[in-house]
Amino acid sequence: MTIKHHPPEEFLAGFAAGRLDQAEHIVIAAHVSMCARCRRFVGAFERFGGTVLETVKPAALAAGAFEAVMARIDGGEAAPTAPAVARPRRADDTGLPKVLDLYEIGRVRRIAPGLSMRPIVIPGGGKSRAFLLRSEPGSRMLEHTHTETELTCVLEGSFSHEGGYFGPGDFDIGDNTIEHRPVVGADMPCVCLVAMSGKLRINGFLGRLIEPFIRL
Amino acid sequence: MAVLLQRRILGHGGRSGSLAKRWPRVKERPEIAVDWVGLISEIALRRDRGAYRRLFEFFAPRIKGYLMRTGTSEAEAEEIAQEAMITLWRKADKFDPATSGAVAWIFTITRNLRIDALRKGRRTERVLQDVEAEYRPEPVESTETAYSRSQEAGHVELALQRLSAQQSEIIRLSFLEERPHSEIAELLGIPLGTVKSRIRLAMNRLRELLDASK
Lengths: 216, 214
Description:
The complex is a heterodimer.
Chain A lengths: L8 H9 L4 H13 L1 H20 L9 H10 L29 E2 L3 E4 L2 E7 L6 E8 L4 E2 L8 E7 L2 E3 L2 E3 L4 E4 L8 E2 L5 E8 L4 H9 L2 E2 L2
Antiparallel strand pairs in A: 1-3, 2-3, 3-4, 4-11, 5-12, 6-9, 6-11, 7-8, 7-10
Helix pairs in contact in A: 1-3, 2-3
Chain B lengths: L18 H4 L13 H11 L2 H21 L4 H18 L10 H21 L8 H5 L10 H16 L3 H12 L4 H8 L3 H21 L2
Helix pairs in contact in B: 2-3, 3-4, 4-5, 8-10, 9-10
């Protein structure tokens, strides 16, 4: 797998520092899990974070904090158990990145002929939504722009637009300065993990999404 | 296993004066050379409380200080710092010195607990989420040897050292201390546009250095 398109470094840095919006965090995690180059960048950033931690101005803990911590350790306070992830897996879930094992994925919703999506359930929400977008081979979108930022990681299949060819692992970012007219590869369906920010409600957003799609 | 500890005099008290002094550049390591990895393995191997106490005394206040610096309330910073230290005790045997340095590992523990706290604050029902697993989504490839991982760590360390002081500073202020660009501009006495371009250049430079050290 040759990955040619990577996230802007600011997103990798934000991911490593733990300050991304959760939907964006998931998409970056998916890319990083497939991309050794970006894993290295994130690893470097974590090291950098360690150095910052080492040199930051300390803030004294509450009196007796050490004893309190030892008491909690000795008390055998229930160790955090691995979360029981009870997400119903579907037969076609096999190719999904592991990060999605930690999330519940909603039901398939058809958006337009040849186009469907499954929302990633983010408890408590966030400023962005995340979803899986599946389009049939050869689908084409009309030229469109995004009102806000859209992060995409290709999981399966491919699409192409003015920015180039995007295959598995490739990362694409769209915003209001970029005009897109993606065409899905003809050989197989394209499955992408997408994080999209915007203030529109989900219905309005879907409506907007349906419009630019036609099936060829 | 004999663990060698070299400890010089701690040089931390009484920082004052200019901001630059209070927030030393990342390259200026603290005047201390403690074998953190050795201390962590003492905990892993024999639950050594003396080793733990030393880690606690150094890191707990720094974790709290770091969190407060990024806008976490004092009460929450205290709670996360304690949680982080408990996690350190419990996961000491999972720490792999070949993969990341001790301080990077402690940083990731802190970061993950902070993310978890932020998410907990938002959600109405309690849903457990394994933040750590989100950062380690794939198992380490079995063909990867400890040697190649430590070599990789060496490359990364070298790349970080080759960043200029100015580049390290802008990365720290922007991404780790999470200061808004306007505040960084004021702090460094440079225009807002320069802050943005410096961040971009620093990011490019880091990527370049990491790509070059293959």
